[in-house]
Amino acid sequence: MTNMEREDGTTRDDLVQRVALMEAMIAEGRRNTGRFGWIFILWGLVCLIGIGESYLLPQSYWVWPITIVSGFVIQFIGIAMHRRSGNWPSENLKSRSVAAVWRMMGIAIILYAAPAGVTHTIHQIAYIAAIFMFLGMAHAISAVILRWRAQGVVAGLWWAGGVATYFVPRNYVITIYVVEMVICMVLFGVYAMWLERRRAVALELHHA
Amino acid sequence: MPELPELDPVVHGKLRLAVLVLLVGVEEADFTWLRDKTGSTDGNLGAQMMKLEEAGYVAMQKRFAGRKPQTLYRMTPAGRKALAKYVAALKLLLGGAL
Predict the structure, then answer these.
(1) What architecture is the B9-83 domain classified under in CATH?
(2) What ipTM does the predicted assembly reach?
């Protein structure tokens, strides 16, 4: 086809433009505009507050359940607010896969941690190491799905921390816990939020 | 010489084409998300979505997220077929450049 008009008035340039438009929309659709970084920060802070409270109130059984439930309530409110503002992504296979990984990991951690915490039948170090392994696995799977190297590094840090808990003196385990929570949850969340913000600005410029 | 394929005028519209391509990759999409992704206005997108609905290429569903009403769109099998046919026609017209 030359650039001569068809009977319906369409030229070759029109068709080439349509191809470019389709490519741009495919790229747009793949781009995840969801805001999830804050969830990492939230849970990092929840875990840091929980460990701080249990240090201050070592005899209280209610510290962790109350802290964790508060985390869920805040997350629920946050997600509801995002949905209302229209800041929630449409679902595709990739986003559903990543969301499924994190949901199932959350369920697995609760099913693992709650009975262990109630019955005290597990060694504290094995308990912390297992939680780190759960988190590392979720990050690793998500990193593979999203092809996100930074998240792969975070997965490696969780696993390294989990292994390290068996080899360091016992009083250093808490230091590892705090360092992991700060780096792999809070700072990673801040980094994710920074990327989300940058992506949003790029999108605004694209549409300007 | 083979006859040149017809381009479906409903799919050929720029904004409608953009929406259909976006909807192919997702299960369902909120009106706001489609508007942001295409950079269109509420009025224009609403009018184009109505045309796609009338052609049977998208299905609309209204629901509430909390107290806020949400308009969700999903592509119908007819819409997928029409888009596939349109892409095939484009390929033919552009000599396999796609």
Answers:
(1) Orthogonal Bundle (1.10)
(2) 0.82
